[in-house]
Structures are given as structure tokens and as C-alpha cells.
Write a structure and sequence with these properties.
CATH class: Mainly Beta
Number of domains: 1
CATH topology: Immunoglobulin-like
Distance between the termini: 13 Å
Structural class: mainly beta
Largest sheet: 5 strands, mixed
Strand content: over 45%
Number of helices: 1
Helix content: under 10%
Order of helices and strands: EEEEEEHEEE
Radius of gyration: 14 Å
Oligomer: single chain
Length: 114
């Protein structure tokens, strides 16, 4: 499992959100946001390998972008937020960072998971 993971739950459907495209970015002082990982949530709404194998987690600012328009379109649902971006700080590179997303077509919530 990578040092950064996520889990998306569709609260409007009452189930995990499978097939959500996800991108991980890191903020580089010299060049801005740089994509370093990507994937898609599995049948359980999880993405366990967001940080690429061999990449070492470093302290800094990270952003996870969830392509919610693609997910809701696959359900035939029109949502209000086409992308959900969550920016968070990694202050201890030795820890695991789990960033869950609770999602519905017209709202979302997140928290630091375990």
C-alpha cells in the first residue's frame, strides 16, 4: 500500500464509488503543481496505490483531484461539482495519509482517515 491512499463513498447511492478517476499532485516550489500519480477507485471505492511504487513520500503540500463528472456521468446523474480537489499538508513523511471523500451530486465532505 502506498503512503497516500483514498476511499470514495457515494452517500447518495449508499455504497462505495467505483470507477472514480483520481490524480495525485505535489506542489513544487520552482514549478507549481506536478502530477505524480493517478488511478481509479476499485469496486470498494478504494485506491490503495496512489503514490507510484518506488516514489518516496516527502514533506510538502499535496492535492488529490477526483474526476466526479466522469463518475456521475457513468450513473446518468448530473452533479454540481465536476472536480473535487483536496489539498493537504504532509508534515511527517513517515506517516500514512488516508484521505477519504464522502460524495453526492450536490455536496462532498472529507477528513483525515486512518
Amino acid at each position: 500500500m502506498s503512503a497516500i491512499t483514498t476511499h470514495v463513498l457515494d452517500t447518495s447511492q449508499g455504497r462505495p464509488a467505483a470507477g472514480v478517476p483520481v490524480a495525485l499532485e505535489v506542489l513544487r516550489v520552482e514549478s507549481g503543481w506536478e502530477q505524480i500519480g493517478m488511478g481509479e477507485t476499485d469496486a470498494d471505492g478504494r485506491l490503495r496505490e496512489l503514490l507510484p511504487p518506488g516514489d518516496v513520500l516527502v514533506e510538502g503540500m499535496y492535492r488529490i483531484n477526483f474526476d466526479t463528472v466522469t463518475y456521475f456521468a457513468s450513473l446518468g446523474v448530473e452533479g454540481f461539482y465536476p472536480v473535487v480537489s483536496i489539498v493537504f499538508a504532509v508534515r511527517d513523511a513517515g506517516q500514512h495519509y488516508h484521505v477519504p471523500l464522502l460524495l453526492s451530486p450536490y455536496g462532498y465532505s472529507t477528513y483525515r482517515g486512518s
